[in-house]
Amino acid sequence: MFGQAVRRFTTSAIRRSHYEEGPGKNIPFSVENKWRLLGLMVVFFGSGFAAPFIVVRHQMLKK
Protein backbone atom coordinates (compact mmCIF):
# COMPACT_ATOMS: atom_id res chain seq x y z
CA MET A 1 0.00 0.00 0.00
CA PHE A 2 2.86 2.41 0.81
CA GLY A 3 4.56 1.73 -2.54
CA GLN A 4 1.44 2.71 -4.45
CA ALA A 5 1.18 6.04 -2.58
CA VAL A 6 4.78 6.87 -3.45
CA ARG A 7 4.28 5.93 -7.08
CA ARG A 8 1.08 7.94 -7.29
CA PHE A 9 2.84 10.99 -5.80
CA THR A 10 5.83 10.84 -8.15
CA THR A 11 3.74 10.45 -11.28
CA SER A 12 1.50 13.34 -10.27
CA ALA A 13 4.57 15.48 -9.48
CA ILE A 14 5.97 14.81 -12.94
CA ARG A 15 2.63 15.61 -14.56
CA ARG A 16 2.40 18.95 -12.72
CA SER A 17 5.84 20.12 -13.81
CA HIS A 18 5.69 23.08 -16.21
CA TYR A 19 9.23 22.97 -17.59
CA GLU A 20 9.90 22.50 -21.28
CA GLU A 21 11.88 19.48 -22.35
CA GLY A 22 14.54 19.10 -24.98
CA PRO A 23 18.11 20.15 -25.72
CA GLY A 24 19.03 23.56 -24.33
CA LYS A 25 15.84 23.95 -22.28
CA ASN A 26 17.38 23.15 -18.88
CA ILE A 27 20.17 25.77 -18.90
CA PRO A 28 19.93 29.36 -17.60
CA PHE A 29 20.78 31.00 -20.94
CA SER A 30 19.47 30.79 -24.48
CA VAL A 31 21.29 28.89 -27.20
CA GLU A 32 18.94 30.00 -29.97
CA ASN A 33 21.10 32.92 -31.19
CA LYS A 34 24.60 31.56 -31.81
CA TRP A 35 26.23 35.01 -32.09
CA ARG A 36 24.82 36.17 -28.75
CA LEU A 37 25.96 32.89 -27.19
CA LEU A 38 29.44 33.40 -28.67
CA GLY A 39 29.60 36.93 -27.25
CA LEU A 40 28.52 35.77 -23.79
CA MET A 41 31.08 32.96 -23.82
CA VAL A 42 33.89 35.29 -24.93
CA VAL A 43 33.06 37.75 -22.14
CA PHE A 44 32.68 35.03 -19.51
CA PHE A 45 35.82 33.03 -20.33
CA GLY A 46 37.80 36.10 -21.45
CA SER A 47 37.26 37.85 -18.14
CA GLY A 48 38.49 34.79 -16.25
CA PHE A 49 41.54 34.53 -18.50
CA ALA A 50 42.37 38.25 -18.30
CA ALA A 51 41.93 38.64 -14.54
CA PRO A 52 45.42 37.37 -13.51
CA PHE A 53 47.11 39.67 -16.04
CA ILE A 54 45.14 42.67 -14.80
CA VAL A 55 46.02 41.84 -11.17
CA VAL A 56 49.72 41.49 -12.01
CA ARG A 57 49.71 44.79 -13.92
CA HIS A 58 47.98 46.49 -11.00
CA GLN A 59 50.53 45.11 -8.52
CA MET A 60 53.47 46.18 -10.72
CA LEU A 61 52.17 49.74 -11.11
CA LYS A 62 51.55 50.21 -7.37
CA LYS A 63 54.05 52.36 -5.57
TrEMBL record:
Family designation: Belongs to the cytochrome c oxidase VIIc family.
A Gene Ontology BP annotation from the UniProt entry: mitochondrial electron transport, cytochrome c to oxygen
Localization of this protein: Mitochondrion inner membrane
Name of this chain's protein: Cytochrome c oxidase subunit 7C, mitochondrial
Gene transcribed to yield this protein: COX7C
Quaternary structure and partners: Component of the cytochrome c oxidase (complex IV, CIV), a multisubunit enzyme composed of 14 subunits. The complex is composed of a catalytic core of 3 subunits, encoded in the mitochondrial DNA, and 11 supernumerary subunits, which are encoded in the nuclear genome.
Pathway assigned to this chain's UniProt record: Energy metabolism; oxidative phosphorylation
Residue stretches spanning the membrane: 35-56
Coiled-coil regions listed in the entry: none
The keyword Oxidoreductase is assigned to this record: no
InterPro entries in UniProt: COX7C/Cox8 (IPR004202), COX7C/Cox8_sf (IPR036636)
Keyword Iron appears in the UniProt entry: no
Keywords: Membrane, Mitochondrion, Mitochondrion inner membrane, Transit peptide, Transmembrane, Transmembrane helix
Cellular component, GO annotation: mitochondrial inner membrane; respiratory chain complex IV
